[in-house]
Design a protein that fits this description.
Blueprint: H1 7-26, H2 32-49, H3 56-82, H4 89-100, H5 112-122, H6 130-138, H7 153-159, H8 167-173, E1 175-184, E2 187-188, E3 193-194, E4 201-209, E5 218-224, E6 237-240, E7 248-256, E8 269-277, E9 286-290, E10 293-297, H9 310-324, H10 331-354, H11 363-375, E11 384-386, E12 389-390, E13 393-394, E14 397-399, E15 402-409, H12 423-432, E16 437-444, H13 455-458, E17 459-466, E18 469-479
Parallel strand pairs: 1-9, 3-10, 15-16, 16-18
Antiparallel strand pairs: 1-2, 1-4, 4-7, 5-6, 5-8, 8-10, 11-14, 12-13, 14-15, 17-18
Helix pairs in contact: 1-2, 2-3, 3-4, 3-5, 9-10
Length: about 500
């Protein structure tokens, strides 16, 4: 850190920080000017941070700015929902994708407040949860950036090699290729997308070019992946220079086919689109921004089932991907949790299909039947333990030290988000067993007069804060209390 105060950096950072604090107070309210003001202040802080070097205080500012930049998308998400805008979910998907793409090798990512924020985003499901995230940002304090390490002149010239003092001329020639969105078969791409191996899908890409570089005529977008054999699975795109003045918005559609399936435990295929103009010898460097990474899930759940029900397995793929992005979870714990969820998913699907549990089923019979059915799975078997001690209490079940808490509700219909009163108990067992994850299975066996329950909505992941840690709670609601379907028409 330098011995002399850097007043220019200090004033700029402090001014942006004040603007952010003021904008945060109004960011979730109805006027679009609120989140726009927050976005402007975030960009200004990012520009200031780009001029500083390494350091502990500097990393605190980088962590804070990253969180604010992601929260801007969440504020815009709420505004889009409020105004019934089409495809409002793209803002939430964008925020979650940015979280998943953060390079954990960078020093600022060790900031505990940033990691709490990232965990909150991973578990975010609806706009009502934004208030808690906003409160976390409001309580985020920062030291004064008075003695900032500034980048050397050599590094600054490297970052901006064509700058010669004529900023207006440079800004005029600067080119940015912004990846706006991907669509798969007409639907916006998600954080992770399931493509059945061997099936052809339409992949649409939309990019924005701010200023087309001089002496160039073609922009190429090419998929890049670790294994070169996989690159032909996704289409390449070529765009010729449009007429008129920029910015230009370009859209192209091609065929995407995953030729080879991967195992359920393998990570999704990952593709990164590179942008390149045909001749850049007389032009400035091109800035590539936006979300140009695609994660494609290619597990063949029909050939390699986890629960025995294809629709359950497809949902469990999403659950697995959410857990993989959960900060602090060990990969072995994720794998073991998925084995248990395969068994519980099978029980939940059977309960809906065959009416396994009658109305008013007590907790002990539910526990006994669940234990028996889970032990029938060869990959669970004797690894499932009953009534193991933890945190001074007795767990219902554990599988390789993953706690499985079993509860029964016979008085009312409930959904995963209604089970939060059991989260503390499940989290306490998980912490005592040295885990950051627990499973909560709730039999909802209230008397039914109408159909209720969809597997895709009855298995969910929640980020549960407890003390200075965040515990992943996977809730599985098992349905009971159904009459015969013919009685619904009487």
């Amino acid at each position: 850190m330098t011995n002399n105060p850097n007043l220019e950096i200090f004033y700029r950072a402090f001014s942006s920080r004040i603007e952010i604090v003021e904008a945060l107070a109004e960011a979730l309210k109805s006027s679009p000017d609120n989140f726009r003001g927050l976005k402007k202040a975030s960009i200004e802080l990012e520009e200031t941070i780009s001029e500083i070097g390494e350091g502990t205080v500097e990393d605190q500012y980088r962590a804070y700015q990253k969180a604010i930049a992601i929260f801007v998308f969440l504020a815009e998400w709420k505004h889009a929902i409020r105004n019934a805008e089409p495809d409002a979910q793209r803002f939430l998907s964008s925020a979650k994708l940015q979280v998943s793409e953060i390079d954990k090798s960078l020093s600022f990512t060790t900031d505990e407040r940033l990691n709490v924020f990232l965990d909150q985003i991973q578990g975010l499901q609806n706009v009502d949860e934004l208030s808690a995230i906003l409160d976390h940002l409001k309580e985020w304090t920062l030291p004064l950036l008075l003695f900032a390490n500034q980048l050397s002149q050599e590094v600054r010239r490297y970052r901006n090699p064509s700058s010669n003092g004529n900023s207006a001329h440079y800004e005029k020639l600067e080119t940015t290729v912004a990846f706006l969105k991907f669509d798969i078969d007409g639907a916006p791409a998600k954080n992770c997308n399931y493509l059945k191996p061997g099936v052809s899908y339409d992949l649409t890409i939309e990019v924005r070019v701010s200023n087309w570089p001089e002496d160039t005529s073609i922009l190429s977008l090419t998929p890049v992946t670790i294994d070169s054999r996989e690159r032909d699975w996704l289409p390449s795109f070529k765009f010729t220079k449009p007429q008129g003045e920029g910015p230009f918005t370009l859209t192209g559609t091609g065929r995407a086919v995953l030729m080879v399936a991967h195992s359920f435990g393998s990570r999704p295929y990952e593709f990164l689109y590179a942008a390149e103009f045909d001749d850049m010898s007389n032009s400035h460097d091109v800035a590539i921004v936006g979300h140009r990474r695609l994660l494609l899930e290619g597990s063949d759940v029909s050939s390699n089932p986890l629960s025995g029900f294809s629709h359950v397995d497809r949902h469990l793929l999403d659950i697995r991907n959410n857990l993989r992005n959960f900060h602090g979870l060990h990969s072995d714990d994720v794998s073991n949790t998925m084995i248990i969820l395969g068994g519980l998913g099978n029980i939940a699907a059977q309960a809906l299909r065959d009416g396994l549990f009658e109305a008013g089923t007590l907790e002990k019979p539910f526990q006994q039947q669940t234990s028996t059915m889970l032990r029938n799975y060869p990959n669970i078997g004797g690894h499932l333990q009953s009534h193991a001690e933890a945190a001074g209490g007795i767990t219902d079940l554990t599988f390789r030290d993953i706690p499985i808490e079993l509860k029964v509700e016979n008085s009312k219909v409930l959904y995963p988000e209604d089970c939060s009163k059991y989260f503390n108990q499940t989290a306490a067992y998980a912490i005592a067993l040295g885990k950051r994850i627990g499973v909560l299975a709730v039999l909802e066996a209230s008397p039914k007069s109408a159909p209720v329950g969809v597997i895709e909505k009855d298995i969910e992941v929640f980020a549960h804060p407890t003390g200075n840690a965040i515990i992943a709670i996977v809730v599985v609601v098992v349905r009971g209390g159904f009459p015969k379907p013919s009685s619904y028409s009487k």
